[in-house]
Amino acid sequence: MTKQIPEPLYDAKFPHQHSVDDEIDLRELFAVIWQGKWLIIAITAVFAIGSVIYAVNQPNIYKSEALLAPASEEQGGGLSALAGQFGGLASMAGINLGGGGGVDKTQMAIEVMKSRQFTSQFITRHNILPDLMAVDKWNMSDNTITYNEELYSPETKTWLRKVKAPFKPEPSMQEAYKVFVKAISVDSVKETGMVTVTVEHLSPAVAQQWAIWLIEDINQAMKERDVTEATRSSEFLTKQIALTNVADIRTILYQLIEEQTKTIMFAEVRDEYVFKTIDPALVPEAKAGPKRALICVLGTLLGGMLAVMLVLIRHFVKK
């Protein structure tokens, strides 16, 4: 006696119900890729050749670095000693006696170097706008710079670039600032307190010169800030001495004036006011970029991935 196997029951609403396998068939994918191998090879080759051409045409970038150490605060010793005793009176004169709550001078100098005002003054003072905005290439044979003739004419020193309003042929300081901050880097190491100033440019000589100028200018700028503040404070304290007859207060004011005079004297006799150069910037011999081999590899991989995606998408769309 044979046992009859009952037929499976289906819902009346779905007479053609059957199990559907939604898993991706790897063999089918490989077959599709193999069928479109020539298209993949062609697209990958195009991307590879394009990336090689792009990498070869990119100019070399040179990087000049300088290692700096924060200058010691010898002039702050007297003010610190007076901070607890005469802090209230000094605050009336707008004098910071270094009570510990102020901004670190080294960090302040770093932020000043990154500011728009300092950058604009730096570009204007050293007349580096053409070297920043219009350089085409650097000639290694004679160490000269070739400018983009569509942007700038070195013979007449005029800007020729074509821009729409509100921009002008000569780049504004806002435009120059955006380019300049990409070319320089100022970083501090918290563990050691050292500061690294890095400048990148097509010309290694220009990179070194900018690094040297940056260090000189920031020392000068911070020196002028402190001298101006100390001078104004001394003038205020001198006026207060003339207005009081109390001997003790006059003594305190004289001591404060003495400390401000020390600050001015200290600033005038030292060129490296905020940063001392530990390792000066040099003219780099080896390029820092671009990484042409990496560009070629990434371009080839990108072309291969796009080609495979194109073949798969085309197959499934047809299917």
Folded structure, characterized:
By secondary structure, the protein is of the alpha+beta class. It has 2 domains: 28-57 and 293-318, no CATH class; 62-134 and 175-288, Bacterial polysaccharide co-polymerase-like (2-Layer Sandwich). Helix content is 55%, strand content 12%. It is built from 10 helices and 8 strands. It has helices spanning 26-35, 37-57, 76-92, 105-113, 116-126, 129-133, 173-183, 204-243, 247-269, 292-318; strands at 62-70, 135-139, 144-147, 152-153, 158-159, 184-188, 195-201, 275-279. The strands form 3 sheets. A 4-stranded antiparallel beta sheet has the order 6-7-1-8. The protein has a two-stranded antiparallel ribbon with strand order 2-3. Strand 2 (135-139) and strand 3 (144-147) form a beta hairpin. Helix 3 packs across helix 9. The radius of gyration is 34 Å and the shape is elongated. Mean pLDDT is 84; it is low at 14-22, 74-84 and 97-101. It is a multi-pass membrane protein. It comes from Shewanella psychrophila. It is found in: Cell membrane. Keywords: Cell membrane, Membrane, Transmembrane, Transmembrane helix. Residues 276-315 form the Tyrosine-protein kinase G-rich domain.
β-strand percent reads: 5-15%
Largest sheet: 4 strands, antiparallel
Mean pLDDT: 84
Roughly what percent helix?
A: 40-55%
GO cellular component, one term: plasma membrane
Main location: membrane
Membrane topology: Multi-pass membrane protein
Subcellular location: Cell membrane
